[in-house]
Amino acid sequence: MADKLVADKHLRYILNLMAEKKKESFESVVMDHLRMNGAYWGLTTLSLLDKLGSVSEDEVVSWVMTCQHESGGFAGNTGHDPHVLYTLSAVQILALFDKLNILDVEKVSNYIAGLQNEDGSFSGDIWGEVDTRFSYIAICCLSILKCLDKINVKKAVDYIVSCKNLDGGFGCSPGAESHAGQIFCCVGALAITGNLHRVDKDLLGWWLCERQDYESGGLNGRPEKLPDVCYSWWVLSSLIMIDRVHWIEKAKLVKFILDSQDMDNGGISDRPSYTVDIFHTYFGVAGLSLLEYPGVKTIDPAYALPVHVINRILFTK
Amino acid sequence: MDFDETVPLSQRSEWADVVPLTQDDGPNPVVPIAYKEEFRETMDYFRAIYFSDERSPRALRLTEETLRLNSGNYTVWHFRRLVLEALNHDLFEELEFIERIAEDNSKNYQLWHHRRWVAEKLGPDVAGRELEFTRRVLSLDAKHYHAWSHRQWTLRALGGWEDELDYCHELLEADVFNNSAWNQRYYVITRSPLLGGLEAMRESEVSYTIKAILANPANESSWRYLKALYKDDKESWISDSSVSSVCLNVLSRTDCFHGFALSTLLDLLCDGLRPTNEHKDSVRALANEEPDTNLAILVCTILGRVDPIRANYWAWRKSKITVAAM
Q1: Among B31, B73, B231, which would you mutate to test the A interface (most chain A Cβ atoms within 10 Å of its Cβ)?
Q2: CA distance B187 to B317
Q3: Do residues A177 and A125 lie in contact, with contact meaning Cβ atoms separated by under 8 Å?
Q4: In chain B, N or C: fewer CB atoms in 10 Å?
């Protein structure tokens, strides 16, 4: 049982992950190709805890740039292929350090815009996988780069709306089951493009608040699934974007997240008493930010970056 | 498999001509990944053939070795596709390869996208095989999101709708709370070219769903499915007596959660259902509150009590009720 966020322990957990070279772990082996995502999760968490200064900006930024492909897209790691997943994380990392100006914006934005399909959907890369996750990524990234006009926004929005289900939720493609992760992506994309009126907020808000489990206070991602800390982000950010967050019981959710911390070694897991990882550490802290937990900076629910970072972007140039 | 996994690549004569490329992380890499020796070596050899763009049979075998170590590595999947194309490799064998990898870990996007890429090339002839594969995956995890996505794609692109409704039933018999199966059921009745569409299927589906509800009234999925059957047809939704009947039936029971029955009744009332005395008595029997309150408001009050974690939502619903929705 925990009654507070052990921020110092999480800081140490993240910095250890980022510093140690010789650690043997299954997690490090499987994370090789998605290091860019891992870096985004770790660095954004540090930023939310006001500790971004603990890492070397130059080292991070120069490593990020080694992951850029000649197509303009970024890979998950040096020497891997480009993909929108890592392109967004790269841009978000640069945004954290206020280093977007080093980007060839034309190049990056052309890479993303080139992945829009005829029906308005987006592919993840040249191999053509389509998923509403990529719609969000494209829109979020181009918005940060101020190049949304490079895509057909109307078609992009119409495609997302075609993935809306009768329960008010969204899936990965038309007809696919509503899932909180996909809902975050669709609602986020609609929010960024000013199309939240295409969401049935009352209906979706109800579906989202039904994700809260009475026993644990945690949130699941679909009916009859187990609660998981990462849904503290996907569900909560969606509720905030549609202005219905007061429909969940905040105190119980805070407790669920806090109870999922490793109080000794830092890090947060998917639920109490399980193994921690960087993914759930980020989503736990981000969730607490949305719940206005003291000591955690405010995060933007649509861009998944600290508000002060987004303000810097939106109010300059 | 015809390679000896215990012999390091550097000691295999087949690879003697290749210089492995180490990862250039720079002096102080961010989030450095500490590597198990075998993984590091395999990645070094993969990197060599990737950068020299060698699309040979041994390259194909190497991608398999690499994927066994880390099936999430998307660059390896990409390169494997290039090699498969260059070699004009037997794609039926490739389906088997994917199934072998899936045995260890089927929860990765790359594997499923690769499967789709292969199946698309093979065409409608493999519809049955794709349905069989997803069925096997779903037998281990009946809510596997990737598997359902692939199954929906298969039906759409390759066909095979004939037995899908029966399959949904099979899964719901095993677990009536399987939201994915309910979603698939909706997918079938609205999109199958072999059925008549939602309206034609409504009567039989309502009957099916009511049976499921009565067996397990605390099932969010079945109640949502019931409502979805009346998509865009509010008139039928409020006038079909079997809908309000199932609410009353559940509310009269003392052995189950009443929340979904109450919220469904609330929706009906707000959509224009004129409550009968039976409705009123049924609700009032559950109330601790004043009996002459507006019925819909009374339902909200009760819901705030039986579903307390969503008290704010039910309070909001209550605030939206106008006198006209009595």
Answers
A1: B31
A2: 30
A3: no
A4: N
Q: CA angle, corner A217, sides to A215 and A221, nearest 5?
A: 105
- Please give the C-alpha separations between residue B316 and each of A55, A246, A293, B320, in angstroms, as whole numbers: 46, 10, 25, 6
Among the partner residues B29, B179, B191, nearest to A175 by beta-carbon distance: B191
Rounded-to-integer distance, Cα A245 and Cα B204, Å: 38
Q: How far is CA B101 from the centre of its chain?
A: 20
User: What is d(CA B164, CA B162) in angstroms, rounded to the nearest whole number?
Assistant: 6
DSSP bridge partners of A299: A306
Contact list, A205 vs chain B (CB under 8 Å): 313
Catalytic residues of B: 107
Task: Determine the Cα–Cα distance for residues A200 and B231; give it in Å rounded to an integer.
Answer: 14
Note whether A198 and A154 are within 8 A (CB).
Answer: no
| Set of chain A residues whose Cβ sits within 8 Å of the Cβ of B313 | 205-206, 209, 247
User: How far lies A226's CA from each of A212, A216, A217, B176, B297, in Å?
Assistant: 10, 10, 11, 16, 32
pLDDT tens for chain B, 326 residues long, are 445 556 888 889 899 999 988 876 555 555 555 557 778 889 889 999 999 999 999 999 999 999 998 888 899 999 999 999 999 999 999 999 999 999 988 998 999 999 999 999 999 999 999 999 999 999 999 999 999 999 999 999 999 999 999 999 999 999 999 999 999 999 999 999 999 999 999 999 999 999 999 999 999 999 999 999 999 899 999 999 999 999 999 999 999 999 999 999 999 999 999 999 999 999 999 988 666 578 999 999 999 999 999 999 999 999 999 765 44
Chain B residue numbers with beta carbons less than 8 Å from the beta carbon of A17 are 31
- Asked casually if ipTM beats, i.e. exceeds, 0.90, the reply is yes
Six-digit token pair at B53? Answer: 């763009």
Q: Which residues pair with A68 in a beta bridge?
A: A74
CA neighbours within 13 Å on the CB side: how many for B150?
33
Q: % helix / strand / coil in chain B, to the nearest 5?
A: 70, 0, 30
- Angstrom distance (rounded) from CA B55 to CA B86: 6
Kindly provide the residue ranges of all beta strands, DSSP E only, lying in B148-290, ordered along the sequence: none
Q: Quote the CA–CA distance of B295 and A166 in Å, as a whole number.
A: 26
Report yes or no: B80 and A112 within 8 Å, Cβ to Cβ.
no
CA–CA gap between residue B188 and residue B229 (Å, rounded): 12
- Distance between CA atoms of residues A229 and A253, nearest Å: 9
Which of A26, A33, A246 to probe by mutation at the B interface, max B CB count within 10 Å? A33
One-letter identity of residue B55 = R
